[in-house]
Amino acid sequence: MTLVNGPKSAAVLYSSLLQSCIGSNAFRQGKSVHHRTIIAPSALPPDLHLSTKLVIFYSHFGDVAAARRVFDGMLHRSVVSWTAMVSAYAKNGRPREALELFALMLRSGARPNQFTFGSAASACAGARCARSGEQVHACAAKGRFAGDMFVQSALMDMHLRCGSVVDASRLFAEMERKDVVSWNALIRGFVEHRHYSDALGLFASMLRDAMVPDHFTFGSALKASGAVSLLSNVELIHTCIIKLGYLDNKIVTASLIDSYAKCRSLSSARVIYDSMCEPDLVSSTALISGYSMDRNHSKDAMKLFCKIHRKGLRIDGVLLSSLLSICANTASIKFGTQVHAYVCKKKPMGDAALDNALVDMYAKAGEFTDARRAFDEMPHRNVISWTSLITACGKNGFGEDAVTLFDRMVEDGVKPNDVTFLALLSACSHSGLMNKGIEYFTSMMSKYGINPRVEHYSSAIDLLARGGQLEDAWKLVQKMNAEPSSSMFGAMLGACKIHGNVPLGETAAKNLFSMDPESSSHVCGKMLRGPENYWRKHPEEKKFVTVSYEKVMVDGDEISQAIPISIIRERKYQSSEYRKRREFGGKDTSYAQATTLIQARGPMRSVPSCWSMGCDAFYSAEWLTTITI
């Protein structure tokens, strides 16, 4: 290359080439341009503008180390150079280094501009460092940039991401001019902090101020409406989207589908999905996630999955997790095992949410061995993973295993949450581990600082009541911070009947009747002093408590099963013989008849394990087109 007009013109030319490489995402070509600027015979003398452009180029492609090498090699630095490097750190997930460089810039005597303060505020937001953010805010005010719209939007975003909604709202109110970016920042912040009513109120104010929303605004407003199930709001926003011509925007369409689904208007969600020219993965995942919230649409979800698989769409972990959730809620072990095989064949392991969904699916289907294996094969376990398996242990009667798992979880450095303790207390309650359960109930407050909810109190009261510690259970009811639930008084009433504590039982019964007058438990309360006399005096009530029907899921199909219930006799953990009789017609069914029925039915599990057979036995490209759903 001949430098006809001198090095200055060449530097301008190279800067233009680098900008073109940024615009077309041509990293290799940009590196070649850089190479030509430093290698003879085309090497150029140091140029401030070209070096700054190189910093911006490497920052755009995430090569922060290369950007810093160029920055450190600069003989002179302008405010644009400093800002480019601070921004490079902030945009590439290195906020601490961005703040350190910003401090170095101030010490060097360079004067930041509005873009420097904006990048520094973004770094504070990324580091979740409110104190540094306040210092940047004060520095911007001192430099008379606090009123700049760009700086104000960045500071407002910083306050929101640091958890200070009040400071962000105050800053927004002080803004003389507000653009759509400012409105979007506060609306999104309200949604992220679950202030949905404030978010929707701000969206309405935005429209009243004649500010035209964009697709980011609609996404946040729809998310807020869906979170509080305001179908009328979703429909109004839908109308606004049509008027402004955003219906073709796939992000907005996916948000619409998700919001309608959360409002239980799945038919509207499906109409929008079917009207799309080319439904993408995001919209498909939104619809399947909506179907996962309603078990009546489980087959629709499975058919949609088969359809998008045939179209060749890339399927991610979020969609597969939603499918496994559907299989878990409908006990569809056959389809769930096939999805598991698909995961083994097509997806790399290590997706924590997907692994957790596998554990949950097998656990809810009663396949504890497979749930445990899915857990053991997880490369990384979070609190949800441990909680899912502890819940499975409790539901399958393995209380000791639940306790062991919890101890292992703590040893591994995973901090339990309130849901973990609820699962643990339930497991202890169903396995008769009263002392252990109360110990955990106490430690959740004293050791982990978790305030118990009504559900925790209910489990602890049930633990004490089952163990015969009725007075202690009643004291816990009286001193709890929350309002007692009817289930607590029901547990107390049942325990008082078993252990013969009539006075306390009558007190529990009175509280239960005042909360739930329609409950059949009032019969149990009246029978505390004499059930035989009660039935002679009230024969008309016996028909309401002799037989109950509960709905159960069998391989995805809902059926009603008659369960005889005797509230006169003490409930005991039945023997295997009694369980067989009860399952097939009640206590009048003979043991031989029950055994014959079990043998005729065959094993409960009709689908072998994905592990026992190997995923190749389940998965093939054809199963999605031939499966009977």
From TrEMBL:
InterPro entries: PPR_At4g14850-like_plant (IPR046960), PPR_rpt (IPR002885), TPR-like_helical_dom_sf (IPR011990)
Stretches forming PPR repeats: 78-112, 179-213, 382-416, 417-452
Record's keyword annotation contains Disulfide bond: no
Keyword vocabulary terms for this entry: Repeat, Transit peptide
Pfam families: PPR, PPR_2
Classification via Gene3D superfamilies: Tetratricopeptide repeat domain (1.25.40.10)
Statement: the UniProt record of this protein carries the keyword Nucleus: no
Protein name stated in the entry: Pentatricopeptide repeat-containing protein
